[in-house]
Design goal:
Blueprint lengths: L17 H17 L13 H16 L12 H17 L11
Length: 103
């Protein structure tokens, strides 16, 4: 009998580009040293807009022609990706602080 696994319906993680994942890990490591590991999801989690503002600043800097963040020397797009990952993480664990305007 051939070996098998019951993986039907599970996420196909091999589709995530590993090179990008490594760059994202560099940003998380930089943040862990600058602040603290997992600082973004402590009891007093940051407001959602702080992640959005930071992501947009990095995207704006990249759009204006700057590739690397002056402080970290890491790519602005990787910083933006990490900010969006942190935003989604705090939402998923129920620690997001949603201050979006709603009519």
């Amino acid at each position: 009998m051939d070996a098998y696994r019951l993986n039907k319906g599970k996420a196909e993680l091999h589709y995530i580009p590993f090179k990008v994942l490594m760059k994202v890990a560099e940003i998380f490591s930089f943040g862990a040293e600058k602040y603290l590991p997992f600082n973004y999801k402590t009891k007093k989690a940051l407001p959602d807009v702080s992640f959005i503002n930071s992501a947009l600043r990095h995207i704006g800097a990249y759009n204006d022609g700057e590739d690397l963040d002056p402080e970290s020397k890491l790519h602005h797009i990787d910083h933006a990706i990490v900010n969006l990952l942190m935003l989604r993480d705090v939402q998923l664990i129920g620690k997001g602080r949603d201050y979006r305007f709603r009519e």
